[in-house]
Write a structure and sequence with these properties.
Elements: H1 46-50, H2 54-57, H3 61-69, H4 73-103, E1 112-115, E2 121-122, E3 128-129, H5 135-138, E4 142-145, H6 167-174, H7 189-192, E5 202-207, E6 217-222, E7 225-230, E8 238-242, H8 260-278
Antiparallel strand pairs: 1-4, 2-3, 5-6, 6-7, 7-8
Length: 279
């Protein structure tokens, strides 16, 4: 058949913000996870919300949504199961797409990429939604299925920091098309095919959207550490996380003397990234 590109954008697993039920999954999946008790994340303990500075806790949209979705054990179980049922529904549709490719004899030369556009707090840090730089919020799925890959290269979980700006260059590369210079991202095809490639070890995080209930922030994210500053002149407006020492991000090291030089290095790197982004 002729070459084709198909983009399928799911609304699921997004919340229906205006509906009290929030997670509106297909009723066919109502029995899924029925007898399962979903464990609450370690970093969902109320003490972690309480530890945030006053400016962050004041009128925070992520906390308002937490109250609707996760503030009781019953709400937590209902919300997370609803969220998982929505994701299951996407799996079902993906299965149908793969069946159709098979039927049309296109399964051997069609690459499938599955990605999400943002992470999602499920009560971690006492929050819901996204918008902030915790791992739960900024990590997104990216799964690439390429039937042409050698068996030994399949099923690998790669550790490189890939961003959503890398998706378009990757698609162009897989289609053997030119990647324009103006594109910010890089093709991940060499990583998939086991080639050694010079890759980023940090990226600029920005949430500069103006919203009265979501404090704006920017920072630098590395594999095992991150620095974030909120664009408010208030005490506690900096976060410094050391993911090696504290992967759940429950300790903010921004004011710790022993992290002073790490913090200075990260601020310098963040400023360099901001300046290069302006060029």
């Amino acid at each position: 058949g002729s070459p084709f590109a198909l983009s399928v954008s799911f609304k699921a697993p997004h919340v229906q913000d205006s509906d009290i039920r929030q997670f509106l999954y297909d009723s066919a999946y109502i029995d899924l996870y029925k007898d399962v008790n979903i464990p609450v994340p370690v970093n969902a303990d109320s003490s972690y919300w309480e530890a945030f500075p006053d400016f962050f806790k004041k009128n925070n949209e992520a906390r308002r949504r937490w109250a609707i979705r996760f503030s009781t054990m019953e709400k937590y179980q209902t919300s997370v199961k609803g969220y998982y049922r929505l994701i299951y529904g996407i799996d079902v549709v993906l299965g149908r797409i793969r069946e159709t490719l098979k039927k049309n004899r296109q399964e051997e030369n069609t690459v499938i990429m599955l990605m999400g556009d943002n992470g999602f707090y499920l009560a971690e840090h006492g929050l819901a939604g996204k918008w902030y730089a915790h791992e739960e919020s900024i990590r997104v799925p990216l799964i690439i299925y390429d039937p042409r890959l050698k068996v030994k290269l399949r099923g690998q979980k790669m550790e490189q920091m890939v961003l959503n700006i890398d998706v378009a260059p990757t698609i162009l590369d897989l289609a053997k098309l030119h990647i324009p210079e103006i594109m910010d991202g890089k093709s991940v095809k060499p990583i998939m095919y086991g080639e050694s490639v010079n890759w980023r070890d940090s990226f600029l995080f920005e949430h500069l959207f103006v919203h009265e209930k979501i404090p704006r922030s920017e920072g630098v994210i590395k594999k095992n550490r991150k620095y974030v500053r909120f664009l408010v002149d208030e005490p506690g407006n900096e976060w410094l996380f050391d993911l090696d020492a504290n992967p759940d991000e429950t300790i903010n090291y921004a004011d710790s003397d022993s992290y002073k030089s790490m913090k200075e290095d990260l601020i310098e790197e963040m400023n360099e990234l901001i300046n290069s982004a302006k060029k």
